[in-house]
Design brief:
Elements: H1 42-45, E1 49-50, E2 60-61, H2 63-68, H3 70-103
Antiparallel strand pairs: 1-2
This protein binds zinc ion (2 copies).
One zinc ion is lined by residues 19, 21-22, 24, 40-41, 43-44.
């Protein structure tokens, strides 16, 4: 019985992530921009922003998406303050109204 040794090459499919800006490797599990879905290498990711939502998986914004949002974020912050003010006024009014009923 004759034997011989053969070498088999197994085919493997792997996903490699490349920076959408400079095409260099972006590592194994790079974060994606929450708005455009692009990924960046470590160098380009330095310009990214993460929101502070307090979770283990922050939302990441690439530089472009973040800068497009600049005036909108200002407006959102303004509206946030207006909402707080309105809510406060409502709560204060309701508490005062309840007091008047108690003493009347
Ligand atoms: Zn890059
Ligand atoms: Zn983006």
């Amino acid at each position: 019985m004759a034997t011989r040794t053969i070498t088999r090459t197994r085919q493997e499919t792997v996903t490699v992530y490349e920076c959408d800006w400079c095409a260099t490797s972006a590592g194994r599990h790079p974060p994606t921009c929450v708005l455009c879905g692009r990924i960046a290498c470590a160098e380009h990711r330095k310009a990214w922003h993460d929101d502070e939502n307090g979770s283990d998986y922050p939302y990441w914004y690439c530089r472009e998406c973040w800068s497009i949002g600049e005036q909108h974020r200002e407006k959102v912050a303004e509206l946030d303050r207006a909402i707080d003010k309105e809510t406060e006024a409502w709560h204060r009014k309701a508490k005062e109204a309840a007091k008047e009923t108690q003493h009347g």
